[in-house]
Design a protein that fits this description.
The chain is of the alpha+beta class. 51% of the residues lie in helices and 19% in strands. Among the domains are: 110 residues, Beta-Lactamase, CATH 3.30.450; 61 residues, no CATH class; 203 residues, 2-Layer Sandwich (Heat Shock Protein 90), CATH 3.30.565.
Length: 573
């Protein structure tokens, strides 16, 4: 449906009415316009201040998020707990990689440091001296989350301290601190230097940082009345606030100019009205109407989108042709942005695929540091007791297991894996006084076949620690390996306590539903974290849902765990 009045007709009618009433309503028009402009300027200023505070909040939130991610990593917990020198520096390599990937791409921190509860520190970046790090330890050893300014080696730093607390036990355990240091000048640059706008970082009602250094250290309550607009936002997850403050004289800086223009326009309006009509009609109204019609046509593209070939035609007027060129360039940039967005989405998809591959690799890590430490302690105890034969057996077994674990998730010979399994059982037998009796029923045909490394050891460990550990005598474990058609089966049976029916049902349901998608990016390392569900995920991810782990138990009479996988010959690998 066509509009009754075109743009040109509306212009003529408005101009006639305006000319008739201009003299009688000038004063009222002036007041209304003045108030409207003042209100608009104030609203725009408030919106701009709000946008600045959100931007500053996001920058500081990134720093807080990065520090929290580092402090919450299990790798960092293990690193801060480590007391031995060689494992300490080995774990430092993994933590350095976490710091490199999380901190430096999105923050401007000069130094990232960890300090444990005993005062052992490690620099992941920056070149501060040991004396400076000792000052940091003494300053923040009893502190929780801290945001402060500190001077080290004649340099002022913005300091962000986050405690590292292990929440995996029954009670939270403090492990140390993550400290991020950013040069104060660099931190101030994060606040920007916009003219007429003072930006603050506030803590406990005090201006901690500002692009106007004269305000630092002043109270917000005494400073805020000096400004016309103050927009304040709390940085999420912290006790800090950021604020953008704009003085009164900046809210409407062109007030005097407005009055002058209003008076001059009143004097000249009547004499210029006819000339203005002809000029506006030919140079503005008609070209603008053409532009509006062209934009409307482009806006009605297919599916409500701007068509790729839609462009505005030239108007023949220099000023408007520049506008038309800008609009056309905007359309070109829109198409370019759409292409870039599509490419970025593809990159994100590729990264997601890589993340899933990394999760699969993490599932193959099965050697528990707790097991190694306990074994070494038993080796020392047996050595002190003069049990040289048992000491030798336990040392040899541990060495073989440590060497074998480097196979990761690769395929290994079944008999080789059983030899390592025997070493593990021998260690457990020595540790618990030779109380386990183990019977092997392995078909000779399995000698020519392959299997994923270290999938049986967690099953055997469950049988020894949960099924048989409570038995004082006659603790028997039976391990079978056989083929049926194109499949290989392993059965691990014990005559232990068994599993209550309700608990057994839950375990069976979890095994039936276990998939690789349920695993987090960083699964808990060690044998305790790679139980039946992780074995299920490994086997099903490699071979499909037709294979995996099943469990059956007679409460009070023992438990049997069965593992199935396809036949894999040495010649096919």
């Amino acid at each position: 449906m066509k509009e009754k009045l075109t743009l040109r007709h509306r212009f003529l009618l408005s101009l006639a009415i305006y000319t008739t009433i201009i003299l009688s309503l000038w004063f009222g028009y002036h007041i209304v316009t003045h108030n409207s402009v003042s209100r608009s300027e104030r609203e725009n200023t408030i919106l701009a201040a709000d946008a600045l505070t959100v931007q500053m909040s996001a920058q500081f939130k990134q720093m807080n998020t990065v520090a929290s991610v580092i402090a919450g990593s299990h790798y960092v917990w293990d690193f801060l707990r480590e007391q031995n020198v060689i494992p300490y520096y080995e774990k430092a390599t993994a933590v350095s990689e976490i710091v490199r990937k999380t901190a430096f791409p999105i923050t401007s921190a000069d130094s990232v440091i960890t300090i444990n509860e005993e005062g052992r520190f490690f620099r992941f970046s920056g070149g501060l001296s040991n004396d400076s790090l000792e000052i940091l330890f003494e300053t923040f050893k009893d502190a929780s989350t801290v945001y402060t300014i500190i001077e080290l080696e004649d340099i002022l730093f913005f300091c962000h301290v986050v405690p590292v607390i292990d929440y995996s036990g029954q009670l939270p355990t403090p492990l140390g601190k993550v400290i991020m240091l950013t040069g104060l000048d660099r931190t101030r640059r994060m606040l920007g230097s916009g003219e007429g706008v003072d930006r603050w970082v506030i803590q406990d009602g005090i201006i901690m940082l500002s692009n106007n250094t004269e305000l630092e250290g002043l109270g917000v309550a005494e400073t805020e009345p000096n400004y016309g607009v103050v927009s304040t936002v709390q940085i999420e997850g912290t006790s800090l606030f950021v604020a953008a403050a704009i003085p009164d004289d900046a809210l409407f800086p062109e007030r005097a100019l407005f009055y002058t223009i209003a008076f001059i326009s009143l004097c000249l309006f009547l004499s210029m009205i006819i000339v203005l009509y002809h000029y506006l009609s030919s140079h503005i109204i008609r070209p603008m109407a053409n532009i509006i019609a062209g934009v409307r046509d482009i806006g009605y593209g297919k599916d409500g989108c701007l068509p790729g070939s839609g462009r505005l035609p030239k108007t023949g007027r220099k000023d408007f042709d520049a506008l038309v060129s800008d609009i056309n360039q905007m359309l070109d940039r829109t198409e370019e942005c759409h292409t870039e967005l599509t490419n970025e989405r593809q990159k994100l998809f590729d990264i997601e695929l890589l993340r899933k591959d990394m999760r699969m690799s993490l599932l193959a890590s099965q050697m528990d540091a707790h097991f190694v430490v306990n074994t070494l302690k038993n080796v020392k105890r047996l050595s002190d007791m003069g049990e040289t034969d048992k000491t030798g057996r336990m040392t040899e077994g541990l060495a073989a297991i440590l060497q074998h674990r480097h196979a990761g998730d690769a395929l290994v010979n079944i008999f080789d894996d059983f030899q390592i399994l025997e070493k593990y059982i021998d260690i457990m037998n020595i540790k618990f006084g030779e109380k386990y009796s183990v019977e092997y029923e392995i078909e000779d045909s399995l000698e020519a076949l392959l299997m994923p490394g270290m999938v049986l050891q967690p099953i055997v460990e469950n049988a020894l620690t949960h099924g048989l550990q409570s038995k004082a005598c006659d603790a028997k474990l039976t391990i079978k390996g056989f083929t049926r058609g194109n499949d290989v089966f392993f059965e691990v049976s014990d005559n232990g306590a068994g599993i209550p029916p309700n608990r057994l049902k839950v375990i069976q349901e979890n095994l039936a539903q276990a998939t690789i998608a349920e695993l987090s990016d960083f699964p808990e390392p060690g044998l305790r974290g790679v139980a039946l569900q992780n074995i299920q995920r490994r086997v099903r991810t490699r071979f499909g849902d037709g294979y995996g782990v099943t469990i059956d138990s007679d409460f009070g009479g023992g438990t049997t765990v069965t593992l199935s996988m396809p036949v894999i010959s040495n010649f096919n690998n």
